[in-house]
Amino acid sequence: MMTGTLYVIGVGPGDPELLTLKAARILRDIPCICVPKGRQEGSSLALSIVEKTIDIKDKEIIEAHFPMRKTRGQRTEHREQNTATSTHPSPCKGEGKGGGNSLYSDNCELDTKWNETVEIVLSMLTRGIDMAFITIGDPAIYSTFFYLYDRLLELNPDLNIEIIPGVSSINAAASRAGISLGLADEKIAVIPATYADNLKEILEGFDTIVLMKVHRVFDKILKTLEEMNLLNNSIYISRAGMKDERIFKDLRDMKEEDLNYFSMVIIRK
Amino acid sequence: MMTGTLYVIGVGPGDPELLTLKAARILRDIPCICVPKGRQEGSSLALSIVEKTIDIKDKEIIEAHFPMRKTRGQRTEHREQNTATSTHPSPCKGEGKGGGNSLYSDNCELDTKWNETVEIVLSMLTRGIDMAFITIGDPAIYSTFFYLYDRLLELNPDLNIEIIPGVSSINAAASRAGISLGLADEKIAVIPATYADNLKEILEGFDTIVLMKVHRVFDKILKTLEEMNLLNNSIYISRAGMKDERIFKDLRDMKEEDLNYFSMVIIRK
Asked: A14: which residues sit within 8 A by CB, 6+ positions away?
């Protein structure tokens, strides 16, 4: 029996018109849409973008759960070592033992749900059902989808998985701010701000620096940019292209409540 | 009188279905399309992508010329210094003097054409005509459009210019290669290979490195990746998503004739 195809679709940064023609065509035809379930609002956002253009009422919607961060770390390690080691989430040792601390139980519950997600997707594909996995922005830019991708191909290397690129929130933010990310020979760095241990060095070595997820470490970033005399080169953008988009050309004007999960700072020298 | 709007449209990496719904709508409605004229095939490619989806036979097509690299350099310098200095291309001193060396004459001709482009676009917008400027991939990623953007806003800061982001060739390449550019806390660097003086340092400091325009310095890149034991982490992709796409998972398999202007190497550690 023919297996189904999993279409991994970047639905763009938020504006429903930034869906590609290809994404719209596949989403119109597909009977089943898989939506990442996260603690952040990203999951519901992806579906809400699609809903504004595509009638989804007759489609099956499946919520995909993902492994804990800890497990992700292990996965990354496996990738780096280029080994074929199994990347099963760690077994839920606490199960059936009645108790344990709550963090441990949480991990366990998440891992169980992650395994369920893998099984559901695999079972539908092997029954010949085409599915779409939707993700905001572009799949290659910080989408959790690749955890599922690796796991599925590990279990069945012959699966048909087609990735449809989308407009990334980084490109959308640059458009809305009216700035180029790179011209001619310029170098671009994209870094999640929360782990920018060598931020100064990167700010020195690159022409454009895109700091993602700045909301949690904003004060620290502001201080660094001030010290390096780069505040006049910095723009804060959150929810680019959405109705509640915010752009600050002077980061000093910002208040705590202006910070948002879907935010970035672009430094353009 | 109302001025027209200049829509700057990223038409995606090559596959006509990767146009966004917004790009397709604007391009259907617009009476005039401005296409960058370059020495590379990128200009005709942008129009050929549009033509496959949109009927352009009744539209006015304008070829946009750009200043010499020399002038671009000056521009970049101005931007860096954050001055309000005029960024006029250098005047054609050779004009009317009958002669000069041929390189000088070429520069002059290009600068004249660049000035003509600026005048034509400005004149159409001020006469209330809406225009689209199309560019392959995403406008913020190495598109020459931003030279025109700066110049137009300098001449008339009140112009309506709306930038519509597109799917970048970088995201398309990652999709086609089946790799993520970044997960969780990973750092991404995008650098034009021709000026990668500190390539080794960047290869060490980042999780994913995208080398653009690799065709001219491919041997040097291959040698560096070999020395750093990164060949197993490297993929060559040219013309991602187009009919003549090429993907090499082992760079050592490549021959001179496989190299292409629309190419990149992605190193994923």
From this structure: A45, A49, A136, A169, A172, A239, A240, A241, A242, A262
Give the whole-angstrom CA distance, residue B140 versus residue B52.
24
B231 touches chain A (CB under 8 A): no
User: Whole-prediction pTM value?
Assistant: 0.87
Q: Report whether B166 contacts B21 (CB < 8 A).
A: no
* pLDDT value of position A268: 97
Domain topology for A5-164: Cobalt-precorrin-4 Transmethylase; domain 1 (3.40.1010)
Residues of chain A whose pLDDT is less than 50?
70-91, 93-100
> Looking at chain B, which runs of residues are DSSP E strands?
5-10, 32-36, 60-64, 131-135, 160-164, 188-192, 208-212, 234-238, 246-248, 263-268
- Contact yes or no for A153/B159 (Cβ under 8 A): no
What pLDDT digit, counting tens, does each position of B87-146 carry? 444 444 444 444 444 555 667 777 888 899 999 999 999 999 999 999 999 999 999 899
Q: How confident is the model at residue B84 (pLDDT cuts 50, 70, 90)?
A: very low
The token pair that represents B242 in the structure block: 């187009």
Token pair for A117: 């997600």
Domains of chain A, by residue range, sit at: 5-164, 169-268
Q: What pairs with residue A192 in β-bridges? A: A212
Complex-level ipTM: 0.86
Confidence of residue B258 (pLDDT cuts 50, 70, 90): confident
A141 CB neighbours in chain B (<8 A) are 171, 181-182
CA distance B67 to B141: 18
Do residues A128 and A2 make contact, with C-beta atoms less than 8 angstroms apart?
Answer: yes
CATH for A169-268, options being 3.30.950.10, 3.20.20.70, 3.30.830.10, 3.40.30.10 = 3.30.950.10
Out of A80, A167, A233, whose CB is closest to B20?
A: A167
Distance from CA of B99 to the nearest CA of A (A): 31
